[in-house]
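hey so i finally got around to running the thing on that chain from the lab meeting. sorry it took forever, my laptop kept dying and i had to restart like 3 times. anyway pasting the input first so we r on the same page abt which one it is
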Amino acid sequence: IPGARLVGAFDAVDDRAEKFAAEQGCTAYSNLDAMLANRDIHVITICTPSGAHRDPAVAAARAGKHLLVEKPLEITLARCDEIIDACDRAGVLLGGILPSRFTPANQALKAAIDAGRFGRLTLGDTYVK
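ok and heres what got predicted. didnt touch it at all, straight out
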């Protein structure tokens, strides 16, 4: 993204935060509140495991940070709603990370579906390692 730069990286495990930050040339944080207090950080990307997105996402929204959250947004509708509500209340943007939909194979599959090459689809299934 033109003009964007990585400012900080958070991990609850100090060594992992330090290692990643050293590799990326940014500041390591093992305290989320300390990172969220940094005024140079405008967007937070949440890449924690599924089911662990809500707490850091809500904290980031309350700190006035825009959010990109790895899929799935959360594991229950109620937890998703809490993130969405926190973003709405804070007036920050919320986006999801769904990178696979732009791969050439998936684009070709979508084009074939749109062209009707498979007839009328009534069921779809996939397995991704």
